[in-house]
Design goal:
Rossmann fold; 4 domains; seven-stranded parallel sheet; 22 helices; globular; disordered C terminus
Length: about 625
């Protein structure tokens, strides 16, 4: 492995790197820096977050900047404000001994006027998000006629965030003789196409196999019911008193709710999401980087580009949509030779995806039991004892207080002192976990669990037309709602009542006629805050009504929450009784508009100008015609 001193960089750059404590380049830096210094070739670098990409492309750019030319010579595009600011700060550190090189960050969420003023003072390097850079180009604020370098950092993430058009717009408006550098953890088809269209015979540099994670990260998951996810997260946090983690949520609303619960329960936690202003985001990140926060609750988009050292855990409140996102997340821990943990808190319906993730990662993701209340309390107590044994004391300062303390404790035995000391420190924790239940899912599911020890719940969806053929002259059946059949059962099943397997069946007075599909049912349930943790079973959709199974215990919340809901203009009526929904369907059933045909419509068809009959049979092929 070469040293930075052997790369050929300017002495001022090497001095700055030395001040920062870097001696040897990372693999991506060792491969990229010499190539960018010695040739005019475009480069595609495959590297995940935390591999040192910023120095890999910024040090050669700094080396080549012409300070006699005040125009913009390099544009670095990145997906988020946080990453934009981070790259800008890194470049300012690298140019500490080159004060004439100016770097400006341009990004959304902050006044454009301030950024315009900075650009007009002069900038050699512009770091920006695609949207804001495009905005400045269209307003003719940003002059790019002298640009020699265009860098697409985290190209795959910019693509997933919908910045494809902006990236192409910028590339089309920069000089053709520029050098284009693209850094990405993966290479989706659109990014590959962009490389073919806008890059000239790029050199491909890969420092890791695709879809791999660092060896210093252990992967594990916990399985609970959806309503117990927060409790599982809290137990994991309590089991690890030194936890320093990012918790990933799917939506900003989820991030807000979990952060609010953590704060309410007395934890050092806060949320990072798209609803925060830039000042609020900066404050949250400052508190997290200085470890005034132990837990950062974030969405994928908001956390993109966050580079924080010494994270102990990355926690997924659900598996991300793809393996690449999982790799990005888990790559934030286990750095600089330290061990890290990437864990996921799942409900039973997500289990089938674990096997897929393992196959793509080439790694085992180990199932762990959610700790019991006793285990959590024991771990916390032992941690406190360890701290007490290793605490540094200032004998000179504390010695003057000891006689008074000894006098106070004289009447107490050693056992009483220890007991009261523990009670004083842990009464609240002990009270919280008193009689805590085992929240692991699948503990009482019998023996049908497969080789992994759990039973995967299947979610079923059945949809059949509400009519049947009755010979050649048969027509539609009555639109009177009927109880759907179960899969594989040719006989009608009797309407169910009560609970079965922890679920209860409910009925809605809307169906296919109102364009209902399973997604709309789930969306409707998620619109009621108290139902977001409820498990949903079978969804069976007929022409004018829908039957679905929901976890027992949520019926009242659902009945109350659906009172003001509508689908396709029809007020939603929900009930547990089939007969009740039948009456409501008759009142709200969807009626097709009958249109006039033939002479009634003022038109004629065929040789004898006779109208087609509106009563054509479904089963008579001879009478079927297209019109």
């Amino acid at each position: 492995m070469i040293n930075f001193s052997e790369t050929g960089l300017k002495p001022e750059i090497l001095q700055a790197v030395e001040v920062l404590g870097f001696t040897q380049p990372t693999p991506i830096q060792a491969a990229s820096i010499p190539a960018l210094l010695d040739s005019q070739q475009d480069i595609i670098g495959f590297a995940a977050t935390g591999t040192g990409k910023t120095a890999a492309f910024s040090l050669p750019i700094i080396h080549h900047v012409n300070t006699k030319n005040d125009k913009v010579q390099a544009i670095i595009l990145c997906p988020t404000r946080e990453l934009c600011l981070q790259i800008t700060n890194d470049i300012k550190d690298f140019t500490k001994f080159l004060p004439h090189i100016s770097t400006v960050a341009v990004y959304g969420g902050e006044s454009i006027d301030k950024q315009v003023r900075l650009l007009r003072r002069g900038a050699h390097i512009v770091v920006g998000t695609p949207g804001r850079v495009c905005d400045m180009l269209r307003r003719k604020i940003l002059d790019i006629e002298a640009v020699d370098w265009v860098v697409l950092d985290e190209a795959d993430e910019m693509l997933s965030m919908g910045f494809l058009e902006e990236m192409e717009f910028i590339l089309e408006h920069t000089p053709k003789e520029r050098k284009t550098l693209m850094f990405s953890a993966t290479m989706p088809r659109e990014i590959e196409r962009m490389a073919q269209n806008y890059m000239k015979e790029p050199l491909r540099i890969s420092v890791q196999k695709e879809n791999t994670t660092t060896a210093n990260v252990s992967h594990e998951y916990y399985v609970v019911k959806a309503k117990d996810k927060y409790n599982a997260l809290r137990r994991i946090a309590d089991l690890n008193p030194n936890i320093y983690a990012i918790v990933f949520c799917r939506t900003r609303e989820d991030a807000k709710q979990i952060a609010d619960k953590f704060i309410e329960d007395g934890y050092n936690a806060d949320a990072l999401h798209g609803d925060l202003s830039q000042a609020q985001r900066d404050l949250v990140m400052h508190r997290f980087r200085t470890k005034h926060l132990q837990m950062l609750i974030a969405t994928d988009v908001a956390a993109r580009g966050i580079d924080v050292d010494n994270l102990t855990h990355v926690i997924n409140m659900e598996l991300p949509d793809n393996v690449e996102s999982y790799i990005h997340r888990s790559g934030r821990t286990g750095r600089a030779g330290k061990m890290g943990v990437s864990l996921s808190i799942l409900h039973t319906k997500e289990l089938k995806r674990i096997v897929f993730f393992e196959r793509k990662l080439g790694k085992k993701i180990e199932r762990k039991p959610v700790p019991t209340g006793i285990e959590v309390c024991e771990n916390q107590l032992l941690y406190l004892i360890d701290r007490m044994q290793t605490v540094q004391t200032d004998d000179e300062q504390i010695s003057s207080f000891l006689p008074a303390i000894y006098g106070k404790l004289e009447s107490m035995s050693k056992e009483e002192i220890i007991k009261n000391f523990v009670a004083l420190e842990f009464n609240q924790l002990l009270q919280h976990y008193k009689g805590a239940e085992d929240i692991n899912a699948g503990a009482d599911r019998g023996d049908d669990r497969g080789e992994r020890g759990y039973k995967v719940e299947r979610r079923e969806y059945e949809e059949r037309p509400a009519y049947k053929k009755e010979g050649r002259e048969g027509g539609r059946e009555s639109r009177e709602p009927r109880e759907p059949r179960e899969f594989g059962d040719k006989k009608r099943s009797a309407p169910r009542s009560g609970t079965e397997g922890g679920f209860v069946r409910l009925y809605l007075n809307v169906g296919r006629a109102q364009k209902v599909n399973p997604g709309r049912i789930i969306e409707l349930l998620n619109s009621v805050k108290s139902l977001r943790d409820a498990r949903v079973g079978k969804i069976l959709i007929e022409d004018n009504y829908t039957a679905f199974d929901i976890e027992s215990g949520f019926e009242e919340e659902l009945l109350a929450g659906f009172r003001s809901k509508q689908i396709s203009g029809v007020p939603v009526f929900v009930t547990q009784e089939m007969t009740a929904v039948s009456e409501r369907v008759k009142q709200t059933s969807f009626k097709r508009e009958e249109k006039p045909y033939g002479k009634e419509a003022g038109k004629s068809y065929g040789k004898d100008s006779k109208p087609y009959s509106k009563d054509l049979s479904f089963g008579d092929k001879k009478k079927k015609k297209k019109y």
